[in-house]
């Protein structure tokens, strides 16, 4: 489990395309401290498993389903990525509960700068819109953010200078894809209410 608090802005060091999969070598001196084979590291919000680790770099395999559902497939050597290690038991939950299971992708539609923050408008897949609410939580490229405005086809988030400086959202431009993970609590509530409604009909 993650919290959506990015630990560092890493970099893609190498990409090996393997037909129905890909192998990424990523550079991140913070998240590789103490890393071991089999550990999990979130890359732009996608939970990946450490296959190899040497120095400040680690290697992870990405299967076709992940490439299809996320924006990892467009990454190239030199691309910057958000990196986060799993939350330790007993640690502070700084963001919200993030699984690292991307639900879909959105696209940066617009950026509106202000003196001390920036409003970013992001497209929202129709099948995810019902899980996104004003002042609720959403994960964008692995970053735990609060929804400012929630529409049927888009949502907006307000970014503080720290987020702009230390994550990929300071670099993304209109047209760029981002990974989205909605609040898992909303999905569980929907399933439970649906089961209750079906039970009442029987």
Describe this structure in words.
The chain is 15% helix and 41% strand. With 202 residues, the protein is mainly beta. The protein folds into two domains: 8-84, Elongation Factor Tu (Ef-tu), domain 3, CATH 2.40.30; 104-189, Beta Barrel (Elongation Factor Tu (Ef-tu), domain 3). The strands form two sheets. The chain has a six-stranded antiparallel barrel. The radius of gyration is 17 Å and the shape is globular. The mean pLDDT is 92.
The share of residues in extended strands comes to 35-45%
Which oligomeric state applies? single chain
Largest sheet: 6 strands, antiparallel, barrel
Q: How would you state the average pLDDT, rounded?
A: 92
CATH architecture of the largest domain: Beta Barrel
Task: Provide the gyration radius in Å.
Answer: 17 Å
Please tag this protein with its features.
15% helix, 2 domains, 12 strands, 202 residues, mainly beta, 6-stranded antiparallel barrel, Elongation Factor Tu (Ef-tu), domain 3, 6-stranded antiparallel β-barrel, 3 helices, globular
